[in-house]
Amino acid sequence: MTAVDEIKIGGMGASRRRVEDNRFIRGKGNYVDDIVLPGMLHMEILRSPLAHARIRSIDASKAWAMPGVRLVLTGETMAARNLAWMPTLSYDTQAVLATDKVRFQGQEVACVIADDPYIAKDACEAIVVDYEPLPVIVNPTQSMADGAPLIRDDKENQPNNVIYDWEVGDKEGTDSAFAQADLVSKIDLHYPRSHPSPIECCGSIADFNRATSKLTVYLTTQAPHIIRAAVALVAELPEQMIRIISPDIGGGFGNKVPVYPGYVASILASILLERPVKWIEDRTGNLISTGFARDIYLHGELALRKDGRILGVRMNTTADHGAFFSDAQPSKFKIGLMHSAFSCYDIPNAHLLARGVYTNKAPGGVAYRCSFRVTEAMFFQERMVQAAADDLGMDQAEFRRINFVRDDDFPHRTPWGFLTDSGQYGKCLDVGLEAVGYQDFLMEKEEAAKRGRLLGIGISTMTEPLGAGNSREYDILGIKMFDSAELKIHMTGKALLRTGAKSQGQGHETTWAQIVAHELGIPAEDVLVEEGDTDTAPFGMGTYASRSTPVAGAAVAMVSRKIRSKARKIAAHLLEISEEDVEWELGRFYVRSQPDRGVTIQECAVAAYSNMPDGMEPGLENVAYYDPPNLTWPFACYIVKVEVDPATGVWDVLRMVAVDDCGVRINPMIVEGQIMGGLTEAYAMANMQFITFDAEGNCIGSNFTDYLLPTAWETPGFELHEVVTPCPHHPIGAKGIGECAAVGGPAAFVNAVMDAVKGSGVRNIDMPVLPDRVYEALQTGQDISGAPPVKM
Amino acid sequence: MMKLRFASPEMLVDINEIPDLDYHRVDDDGTIRVGAVCRHADLERSSLLDTRQPTMAAAAPLVADPIVRMRGTLVGSVCHADPQGDWASVMTALDASIIAQGPNGRRSIAVRDFVLGPFQNALAFDEIAVEAVVPTPRGMPAGGYLKLERRVGDYATVGVAVAIDRVGSQVGRAGIALTAVGPATIAADAAAQKLTGRPLTADNIGEAAELAAEAAQPKSDHRGSADFKRQMVRVFTSRILTGLLRSEEEAA
Ligand SMILES: Cc1cc2nc3c(=O)[nH]c(=O)nc-3n(C[C@H](O)[C@H](O)[C@H](O)COP(=O)(O)OP(=O)(O)OC[C@H]3O[C@@H](n4cnc5c(N)ncnc54)[C@H](O)[C@@H]3O)c2cc1C
Fold first, then answer.
1. H or E element at residue A241
2. For the segment A350-401, what is each residue's pLDDT rounded down to a tens digit?
3. Containing H/E element for A434?
């Protein structure tokens, strides 16, 4: 007998087909909206048409009178139960239903619960709200202006619209680095407001049973346990009486981390009516009111030496948070991890000033396939790097290379104090340059320019902190950012695995089983994975921030090892030798001196229930809670070649090469899928996506005609390459990968277009790099910065 | 419209089941007839249009996305009278008509008179459109359709339809119409006029492009500034015509 073949059993490195696709491609997924409970009622939300207005009165009598209407909730109903406001994950408050004012277009004003959703929607329209319009603020400049109207007049100690001023880094050291610089490169950038837009919008079914006092909530959430804690606080119910079930989730991208007013209202409605209440958000509701992403401005400066070394960096950011500071980010830093910028570069001095302001826009969010401001940090970084290389007149690849942290310089303290642990940055860049044919392209570009064609090449290289936390620096409402896995090996050697994470498309049901297979030699197909039910899953913090594999995935490895160490004792018993003489190879324990004498893990499983050693507890089950020692730091190098049509401003991607180093790959196919998905979104952000507002605060981007999702038709092809530097502290050497491409990708596209147009003197065109912006920039030779139509 | 609650009609009539309206055909004299339930996709895949009506052939694959093209119709699109609709400009450039049928029989309405304004057409309340008719060409039909879209399936930021009929080396008839640059589809007649009765040259192409740009009445919005859209009309008109000139030169 020998060890089992790891690839054959679907272990690490196997591109195993996704288990969950079995039901999805048959249309047998089970989403919140698929669930129908007996006696279920339906809720619809009346939203504010105005961005800023005082509510003089709400007359719901016509709605109440409509047949089939069971309940109308307004701010007044909520206030009577102390539920008009709720806490946010960023220690602010957010209105559930407006009482005093509405503060953004689309804000929740009233809810109608009726026999069917159509009656509820009609009844919403029958509610008469008398608004007194107030002046509207749609950008930070207006927000910070003298005499600007106060948006949060509900709060004490809030004299103006500034939410926070936050500072990190060494100001003095940075000032002196700038004083010594040969050249200072400066740039102003806007990362526009975008939206995660999962295909499934948000929704809930609250089912309160008066007889048992149990509240069950089916919810579109990426983090069921956190929601249970929040519901316990808000609804004042004991935790054992709350069950949150997150069934199949149709995409999250960060949109499904926060608590939304619709959830709270449906819970209250179910408690009041003692019937299940379903709320399913429509597309416009999702786009105009739920967690947006980005919307942040930068003034950035790099202090440069003639030879190309970066001596210091200054970043000054202004974030537009909308009407409530409700970022779902778990760090203790006000601006999230913005100061993870420049982590792949060896820069001695850095200083960051960050300000956040209120505006009359929907609250965040901020995530869209990563953030905690990491996405913005990396975009700003790579735009600053390219501008600096151009300002120095240096090759952009070479400029990056000489400033990279060297392979032998780990662990490395980043400019703002994070600790990176591993990477081969130069090698990744080389693989990318080689694949894209960099040198040839430079010549091709020169040739093309002679014939009036504009070719460009853009690079984006970055290492980003993924996988919150460690628990020292990351918590949500005080709950530390660990995660968990529970593994039950049945008598037959088959297994049930549950984690505190929650897949929304990442393929946990497939990859978690592969980790178990890798650790125990149990075929992946024998491992059933379940997530998302707080009554059964071990406590965990959910899935976002690419944290599943770094944290919950590590817990899966650790719990498997606990199982293995018990199984080893059983094996010693079965083989009648002492434990020290037992050796392990995949799937099997054997006698060191007699390798052909052994027992399989499955035989140990039977024995755990039928023939355990004296004094041993029966069974083969365990649970592990994993608190990672550090974040994981994947590295990526993205290179894009474009051609710009100067007559129309249209740009086409000629090639896109991606080199990702996410450490050890559990399922290469799934990893590649994550990268391609991320690159697609990166392309969309660079090319077409933004949510903007007119001067009255009307949201432009409230449906998929205005807010564009990329399709397979226009998305370019991607060429993927890999470099593997295992994570030194992760049990299986893996790093996060879910978000790298969406984080590092946008700058590569923008840099490519900027490279193509730089002959005209243009240094920046803000995203999305729409044809009209490119055309205007080429015509005028001026940068395009700001968010039209309201430019700031 | 109904989803966004802009319209809440009391009654909807499904015309899909009316027999024999899904055709498109070319009569012996070259007249093209498109029935009311003929889908965009039928036109996109049609073997009839490539040579007989290149402007329509160029537009068909640019309308919406493949899913919408399987369901939407040319006649429905013209009836919808969306200034961003692609077919209305193609039909206008071709001097096409809509056949309306009601209790009092049939009548023909030129597309340029049919579209009254945004989402308004000339049908009486008791009429439906049964057919679009593209008249017999006065020579060899040539033309094209160019559309600036932010993404496949997006409505046009700008669209330009050009249709000419060649008689020998001369342009016998010309039509140019513009999508999405005004409150309704715009017939750029002065531009078309520049081309008729003479050969295509770089000069008159430039003049026509200029006049087409002048005819546009674009508004600045999140898709682009008015100036930019006007420029796109200029570029597209010139690109289509220059392409025709070049293929003419290559053929010679
Ligand atoms: C996602 C999406 C993207 C789109 N993109 C584009 C695009 O890029 N370019 C473009 O041109 N169009 C686009 N469209 C519109 C689409 O091409 C349809 O053709 C158009 O909406 C008409 O659809 P329909 O033929 O099903 O007519 P319907 O939707 O059924 O009808 C539209 C209107 O016309 C009236 N009508 C329809 N047929 C008749 C008739 N025979 N007699 C009288 N009245 C009639 C109806 O009463 C209704 O008011 C898009 C649509 C969608 C949903």
1. none
2. 999 999 999 999 998 788 998 889 999 999 999 999 999 999 999 999 999 9
3. helix A425-436
Question: Residue A289 phi/psi, 5° resolution?
Answer: -130, -20
| A776/B225 touch (CB, cutoff 8 Å), yes or no | yes
Residue B232 lies in a domain: yes
Same CATH topology for A21-27+483-626 and A367-467+630-780: the answer is: yes
Question: Does residue B10 sit within a domain?
Answer: no
The sign one gets for the Cα dihedral A565, A566, A572, A574 is: negative
> Among the CATH numbers 3.40.720.10, 1.10.730.10, 3.30.365.10, 3.30.870.10, which is that of A367-467+630-780?
3.30.365.10
CATH topology of domain A32-134+202-249+256-289: Aldehyde Oxidoreductase; domain 3 (3.90.1170)
Which residues does residue A300 pair with via DSSP β-bridges, in sequence order? A187, A315
Domain boundary (B71, B99, B134) is at: B134
pTM for the whole structure: 0.96
CA distance A361 to A106: 9
pLDDT at A789 over 60: no
Closest CB to A692 among B150, B222, B235: B222
Distance CA(A270)–CA(A278), nearest Å, equals 9
Q: Give pLDDT tens digits for A391-420.
A: 999 999 999 999 999 999 999 999 999 999
**Which residue from B38, B77, B87, B133 has its CB within 8 A of the most atoms of ligand 1, so it is best to mutate?**
B77
What pLDDT shows up at residue A646?
A: 96
Nearest-5° angle of CA B56, CA B62, CA B65?
130
**In terms of domains, do B198 and B225 share one?**
yes
Residue B66 Cβ inside 6 Å of ligand 1? The answer reads no
Beta-carbon-side half-sphere exposure of residue A165 (alpha carbons within 13 Å): 4
| The pLDDT of residue A545 is above 90 | no
Same domain as B112, residue B147: no
Mean pLDDT value across chain A: 95
Confidence of residue A471 (pLDDT cuts 50, 70, 90): confident
Beta-carbon contacts of A80 under 8 Å, excluding residues fewer than 6 positions away, are none
Tokens encoding A445: 């570009």
Residue A34 makes CB contacts below 8 A (sequence gap 6+) with: A247
Q: From residue A645, how far is each of A386, A532, A640, A778 by CA, in Å?
A: 22, 49, 16, 10
Catalytic residue among A201, A344, A370, A740: A370
Confirm if A330 and A153 have CB atoms less than 8 A apart: no
- Write down the CATH number for the domain with range A21-27+483-626: 3.30.365.10
Mean per-residue pLDDT, A589-606: 97
For ligand 1, the distance from its centroid to the CA atom of residue B178, given in whole angstroms, is: 18
For residue A689, give both structure tokens. 């996506």
* SS3 sequence of A515-582: HHHHHHCCCHHHEEEECCECCCCCCCCCCCCCCHHHHHHHHHHHHHHHHHHHHHHHHHHHHCCCHHHE
Count of beta carbons in the 10 Å neighbourhood of residue A212 = 9
3-state per-residue secondary structure call for A145-193? CCCCCCCCCCCCCCCCCEEEEEEEECHHHHHHHHHCCCEEEEEEEEEEE
* Complex ipTM: 0.95
- To the query of whether residue A369 is one of the catalytic residues in this protein, the response is yes
**Is pLDDT at A786 greater than 80 in this prediction?**
no
User: Structural domain of residue B202, as residue ranges?
Assistant: 140-251
State percent of chain A over pLDDT 90: 92
Residue nearest to ligand 1 atom 43, measured at CA: B128
Q: How far is CA A348 from CA A392, A417, A424, A634, in A?
A: 19, 11, 20, 22
Residues of chain B with pLDDT under 50: none
Mean pLDDT of A273-302: 97
In what order do the strands lie in the sheet containing A594-600?
A582-585, A588-591, A594-600
Q: Can you tell me whether residue A437 is helix, strand or coil? A: coil
- Rounded to an integer, the average pLDDT of A515-534 is 98
